[in-house]
Amino acid sequence: MTKCLFLLALCLLPFVALSSTFSSHNPIELPTATVSPKFLDLHKAKSTSTLSDDPVVHTILYSPVTPDETYRMGNTDGGVLGGYIYLGKAPNSDSPCPDAPFKYNGEGGTSHSAIRLIPYKNIGKPPSIHENQDFNIQFTEYNSGCSNYTTWKVEEQHGATIKGVSLVSTKGGTIGQVDSSWFRLKSYSSEYATGYQLLWCPGPILCPACTSDVCHLAWMVLVEGMRMQIAGVVTTDVTADYYPLVVGFENP
């Protein structure tokens, strides 16, 4: 009996030693808000994307998103890429007001700013926002005296501050007019996130017959170390880190 116990102890000894080594020299590193997010390629992810005219719905309540209400818009990824969109100061900006949309990334300060989706034409009674419908985006929360810095507008490529990227600012554009930027939403579901892809489109004034196939995917682009600014276009010669944007809508 004593001999059997001795042999059993010898067999268990390597497992005890391995366990001790793993816990003391190889601790498990849990992700935190300060860990740099890894690039997720939407084109390689297992996903489904649909072109329909269905109503856009609230992330939690599943009620229709309407042009009369304000919402928090955020990236629906459940990891470090998740977070709400807020109005902040663009890098190297000389503007007197916050002038660009960012996805909150734990950098401190405001974590979200309410927005409205303002369609070119209303659909339904009462009206609600639908997929593949043209709309402008406007922040409804802003500093006093900064009401002219609320409407989303994609920068011209030749004036881009980062090569290969057309960032979104709030420095211009008129709601419902040709000089503003027009967006659409398209259902999207993958192993990373479920919600809506935000598309930057030519708009109903310049191209009333354009389908969503000619639109550009919006992205999040890393600026100033850890801030994530929203971009309307990312081209193949981009020089910055960029990440997929799949949005959802919640109460402000």
UniProtKB/TrEMBL annotation:
Residues 1-19 form the signal peptide. One of its GO terms (molecular function) is endopeptidase inhibitor activity. InterPro entries: Kunitz_inhibitor_STI-like_sf, Prot_inh_Kunz-lg. Pfam families: Kunitz_legume. Gene3D superfamilies: 2.80.10.50. Keywords: Protease inhibitor, Signal. Belongs to the protease inhibitor I3 (leguminous Kunitz-type inhibitor) family. This is Uncharacterized protein.
